[in-house]
Amino acid sequence: MAHNEKPTALIMIFGATGDLANRKLFPSLYNLYAKGQLDKFAVVGVARRSLTNEEFQLRVKESVTEHGEAAANLDEFVSKFYYHSHDVTDSSSYIALGKLAEELDENYRLDGNRIFYLAMAPEFFGTIAEHLKKDKLTNVTGFKRLVIEKPFGHDLESAKVLNKQIRTAFSEDEIYRIDHYLGKEMVQNIEVIRFANAMFEPLWNNRYISNIQVTSSETLGVEERGRYYEKSGALRDMVQNHMLQMVSLLAMEPPIKLTTDEIRSEKVRVFRALRPIIGEEVNDYFVRGQYGQGSMNEKEVPAYRQEEMVDPDSNTETFVAGKLMIDNFRWAGVPFYIRTGKRMKAKSTKIVIQFKDIPMDLYYQREQTVNPNLLVIHIQPEEGITLHLNAKKSGQGTEATPVKLNYANKGIDGLNTPEAYEKLLYDSLRGDATNFTHWDEVALSWSFVDNISAVWENTNEHSFPNYESGSMGPEAADKLLKNDGFFWWPVTEIDVDNC
Ligand code: BG6
């Protein structure tokens, strides 16, 4: 579908009374509607509790008012929302939903197009997909698509089981696996920066790049998600998906065309080239951390082990730093360092590409060697690019001084805002799966991560908690780079706004 064509579909949101629907999906759908990007559509909210259509519409209205920018057409928007109280394991409930879907399809002339959006607990994904087929909701005259939230499984084995279940009802090209990082403006910009600029691509390899650092730090703790997080930890929650996805975009070869298949197949090749880290090697390549108590914004905050629904002896990591090696011609020898954690000093997602030192230091900066060139991609909260160069210091002499060329993408606040969901929802309605993860990517990233969790789950980390809330993680994460002669570029001092 061309970009200016308006999609037509019935959107069924499973988990319609949940947090994700309330905070992201309703406001995002409304934004699309307000921009005139939705044509004919209706929404069925599906969830367990019993609500009338009017009660549901009121919730949607409140969600948009609270989390979005409501305008006069809000009443007209919510009038297209319907509610179905549902039992995910009961066929009769699906049959009733199917009837409602048929009615709406006819009344709104939706061309038999259906989107099934699963915004709920993952343990039901498989059951729902199987019922959708068995109870004939997937018998459509138009398109049918399944949009599915993470986590996609808990490890490779469970992901395979889940995939098999959903594949009974949907083909791979009908499955849209969400990774909301792929909806972020500056994550989508990685490819453009790389492939639309003559000055970067020739240098984008092991001859000119010394290392790449990807940091996604959060200030929040585990909040009310202790039950989920205890079984997940930062490795499964952030590394398997968001962090590895960013690495694949940074490392992929230029696709021969900007089509979904071409881009995905280049990303898959990066995952295939990721050096597996097995057994004892994990300790050389990866560091785990767990936050202790500390102070954030001058307020005392509890340790992870004191959080609700968390085992007081928990071995779950809330921080991961790792060194990834991509064993191909372009990247041989270049470490990709990643780090992510909760309760860290700043909420920040940044990518730093550090170029190699120049061959001979003709200039000096206050008795130091000149700074390396850096390309910093600011993903959030600020969005932009900074290029760190060296120039002559004004005045007498030949002293060099660092200068920064800065591009700030103002006007968008990228903190997991509806914008990412808005883009992804729109893509799923238009049938563009480029910014969703293909099964091959999911499988390869699980097999990489499973090797690490296999070691961590079998050894208690006696140093936990090993970083203070409000810090940048455990010391061992700094050592990881120090051993290679590098250091983490501080995320706060290289902010776009400080330039
Ligand atoms: C989610 C994780 O996928 O990403 C959360 O489950 C995490 O634990 C969140 O907080 C971070 O997203 P963002 O967009 O705020 O960086």
What's the layout of helices and strands?
Blueprint: E1 9-14, H1 19-34, E2 41-47, H2 53-67, H3 74-78, E3 81-85, H4 91-108, E4 114-118, H5 125-134, E5 144-148, H6 156-167, E6 175-177, H7 185-195, E7 209-217, H8 226-251, H9 260-273, H10 282-285, E8 286-289, E9 291-296, E10 299-301, E11 319-325, E12 335-341, E13 348-355, E14 374-380, E15 384-392, E16 400-408, H11 418-430, H12 439-458, E17 467-469, H13 475-482
Parallel strand pairs: 1-2, 1-4, 2-3, 4-5, 5-6, 7-12, 9-17
Antiparallel strand pairs: 7-13, 8-11, 9-10, 11-12, 13-14, 14-15, 15-16
Helix pairs in contact: 1-2, 1-11, 5-6, 6-12, 8-9, 8-12, 9-12
Helical residue percent band: 25-40%
- Round the Cα radius of gyration to an integer and report it: 24 Å
Average predicted confidence as pLDDT: 93
Strand arrangement across the biggest beta sheet: 8-11-12-7-13-14-15-16
**H/E order of the elements?**
EHEHHEHEHEHEHEHHHEEEEEEEEEHHEH
Bound molecules: 6-O-phosphono-beta-D-glucopyranose
The percentage of residues in β strands lies in: 15-25%
Describe the biggest sheet? 8 strands, mixed
Our measurement of the CA-to-CA distance between the termini, rounded to an integer number of angstroms, reads 41 Å
Low-pLDDT sequence parts: none
Tally the beta strands: 17
Number of helices: 13
Structural class: alpha/beta
